Amino acid sequence: MSSVLDEVVNDLEAEHAALGNVLDSLSAADWDIPTHAPGWSVRDQVSHLAFFDEAAALAITDAEAFTAEARAAPEKVSEPEGSYLARGRGMAPGGVLDWWRAAGGGLIGAARTVDAKARLPWYGPDMSPASFLSARLMETWSHGLDIVDVVDCVRPDTDRLRHIAFLGSRTRAYSYIARGMELPATPVQVELTSPSGEKWLLGDVDAAEVIRGTATDFCRVVTQRRHLADTNLEIIGPAAEEWMTIAQAFAGPPGPGRQPGEFAGEQKA
After folding, report:
1. If both were cysteines, with which of 7, 89, 99, 222 could 247 make a disulfide (CB 3.0 to 4.6 Å apart)?
2. How many Cα neighbours within 13 Å face the side chain of 217?
3. Structure confidence at residue 1 (pLDDT)
4. Do 31 and 41 contact (CB within 8 A), yes or no?
5. Residues 46-62: pLDDT tens digits?
6. Which three-class secondary structure state does DSSP give residue 139?
7. What is the pLDDT of residues 173-203, one digit of tens each?
8. Backbone phi, psi, residue 245, to 5°
9. What is the layout of strands, in order, in the sheet containing 199-203?
10. 265 phi, psi to nearest 5 deg
11. What b/e string do you get for 144-162 counting C-beta neighbours within 10 Å, with b at 16 or more?
């Protein structure tokens, strides 16, 4: 395994641990609190992560079996009331937690055996292991954010956000493709401050159009967990502004995102 891939796997494991600390603190009632994702409770968020961590482990360990299962049962991932949500809704909270822990442990174990030069199948195009596992980290963080947004628990952001920020920057073109829109030729640079205070430069570092702010705000926007209006991102230029209104770092059809004002109180003076 390459050092870069080692780093991604270690950070994914740490992100799982951070979410595990949150889930361990929940009361039984907390698991049924509605989240800001319409129709989804805390247990639904955890069920989603458990299902896709299991699927990711299978994609690593048996690509043919994963591909066959994905083709045979697309309703598991495309229907809002899919089988994995029904499974979680039929469990006690402890059962959902055990399912998620087992799935995450299986994924981490499989990830530590993967060839860094492999191509891994998924529900979209095949991916490199580093991108594949960065996407799992992004999912763990973003669905975990859905949970901490509504329960009385803190999960501070860390510089593990660099993986999500990188994906967010690299998926600018995909954000347009997902909506059938044409990508502007205008380059955009991204200047972020990490939770530890580091400066990260992404995109076209010589571009005149700029997105500037915290990695926390940028990652929340590109995962559609915050509306741009509820952040302090500084946007310079129409192409940069347009991108941030449609940004989507995750695969699949465009989501509804969050509405302006849902998190207005987070904005700093």
Report:
1. 222
2. 23
3. 53
4. yes
5. 999 999 999 999 999 99
6. helix
7. 999 999 999 999 999 999 999 999 999 999 9
8. -80, -15
9. 199-203, 188-193, 209-214, 234-236
10. -70, -15
11. bbbbbbebeeebebbebbb
The pLDDT value recorded for residue 80 is 44
Question: Among residues 177, 197, 191, 180, which one has the least CA distance to residue 249?
Answer: 177
Which residue, among 173, 243, 174, 186, has the nearest Cα to 211 in the 3D structure? Answer: 243
How far from the centroid of its chain's Cα atoms is residue 260's Cα?
20
Give the chain's domains with CATH numbers.
Answer: 3-148 (1.20.120.450), 161-266 (3.30.1050)
Angle, alpha carbons 111-112-113 (nearest 5°): 90
pLDDT digits (tens, 9 = 90+) for 119-144: 999 988 899 999 999 999 999 999 99
User: Tokens 């595990």 sit at which residue?
Assistant: 20
Question: Judging by beta carbons within 10 Å of its beta carbon (0-12, 13-18, 19+), is residue 266 exposed, middle or buried?
Answer: middle
Is the confidence at residue 75, as pLDDT, over 60?
no
According to the model, what pLDDT value does residue 255 have? 80
Which residues, in sequence order, are CB contacts of 218 under 8 Å at separation 6+? 165, 168, 190, 192, 211, 233
The total number of residues written for the chain in this structure: 269
Mean predicted lDDT score pLDDT of the chain: 93
pLDDT (average), residues 5-18: 97
**DSSP line for 200-222:** EEEE-TT-SEEEEEEHHHHHHHH
Q: Phi and psi for 40 in degrees, rounded to 5? A: -110, 130
Helix (H, G, I), strand (E, B) or coil at 171: coil
Report residue 93 as tokens.
């909270």
